[in-house]
Each structure stands twice: as C-alpha cells, then as structure tokens.
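Hi! If you just cloned this repository, the fastest way to understand the data is to look at a raw example. We've pasted two of them here, unedited. The first protein comes first, obviously.
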Amino acid sequence: MAMGRYRLLRVVDGRCNFAEVTVRAADSGLASRACASAELQSAHRVPQVWVEAAVQGAAAALGRRPAELAGVEVTSVVGSDVDTLPATVWCAAFCAVLIAAGRSPGDDPKALISTSGGRLGVVLSSAETVYPPSEPER
C-alpha cells in the first residue's frame, strides 16, 4: 500500500499555517472514497474538525486526480491550536493523496501550494489550482 505524507507550513498574509497529514492508499476495498482510520477517529487529541477537513481534502483529491487509487485512509493529522485551520488541513490532505498516487513535489514541496490572493490552494497544473471550502476568518 502506498503512503503519502505532506507537511504544510506557509505564511499567508502574515499568518502562519501548519498541518501535517498522512494517508494510506488502497488499490481496492475502499470503493473510491476517503475515510479516517479507526485510530484517528478515536484520538481525542485531534480536533474532529481537523479530521473532517482531512477526509474532505482527501476525497476532493480522489475526485480530481489519481484514478489509480481506489481509496485512501487518513491515518494521522498533526497541527497546532494557533496555526492550524481546517483549510490548512484540507490542503495538506489533498497533497498527501497526490503524493500517495505518485506525484512527487520534487525538491520543493512548497510547489504544490499556492498562496495567491491570500488563500491556500493546491496547484494541480500551471492552469489549475483548487481551493478548500471557504471558512470564517480566525
């Protein structure tokens, strides 16, 4: 099974954004969907809103790109109370799925992330960037 991990640490409009998400890809058995592992669901130290954002980001990545993956399981979400928003987790999960599917960020993992217009987004190509759902200002 392929694994993907992405650590996002970027400053956008003077605000730090941090999240690290790990996913485990399955070639079959998850029926083209994303879910949280049982361990992650029961981890009281991880806010549920982060888990939900990670699953949504992974599902969005599955829906956009890696046809070779049947599904992914989010196994880990790391953040901080100060620097982690659901949008940050969403982007990190999206990138972790791309990495699990074989897309390498090369020497610069920041290349997968856009901060254009003061929003975090995931760069799929020079012409396409996807953004997490909008959320309230912190």
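Ok, and the second one:
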Amino acid sequence: MGVYQVDLTVPSTATELEPAEVSFWVLGNYITHVEIIFPPGCNRVTKVALFYGIRKIYPSEQDQWFSGNNETFKFDTLDPLPDAMTKLRFVGWNDGGRYDHTISLRIVTKWDWEIRERVWLKSLLDRMELLLRRIGVI
C-alpha cells in the first residue's frame, strides 16, 4: 500500500489554458482512495483535477473540475493504474480569484495482492445474491 500527499499552489494568475501543475510518481496497481482538500477562502474559484498524461482521471467528466471552499472531497475507488510505477499530474487554475491557494491531494494505492481477496469476496457475494434472487429468497 502506498499513501501519497501532494500540495499544489495555484497562483491567482493561473488559467485553464496555462494552469499550475505538480507531477509525482505512485507505486501500485490500483488507486483505492482519494482526498482533495480545499482550504477556506477558495470560494469555488480554484479548480483542480488529476491527470495521467493528457487523460483526466478525476473528476471523471472531461469538462469538469473539482472546486470547493473549506471542504474535503473523499471517495473510495478501485481504478487500475497503467503501470506499477505511474506518473500522475495534479493540475489547477483560478477562475477569477485574486489570491493564490494551496490545494492538497491524498491518494492511496494498493497492489493486486492487497485487493485480490476483496475483489474475490465481492464477486462471491454478487453471485450469491444473484442465486438467492433466482430462487426467490430475496
């Protein structure tokens, strides 16, 4: 398991066409947890996203960006990484803000062997549920 934190300072002058960014390496086969921390004062004008190369990973929609004010976005996921050692980019820009803001990103990664049991158990439970539905128990 790998736990990573990256801080991105987004200058007030950063634009969508010329954003601020920080690149970093992660080890693992899957991203399993993500947190994006917006400090007070961002007022939803600072936008951020996580990329692998030119492909936006989070948020999932290519035309969307995370924004917030004094809040933390947390979510669990099971997204495969393309390589055991993967370079990611945390990118941000300001949509009319007057101040620089530092947004923090935390990521947890896991190896295949760490989640294999979890994936196997979920598959088993899904199949049991299907069987119970077919025989009319649930």
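That's it. A detail worth noticing about the second one: The radius of gyration is 18 Å.
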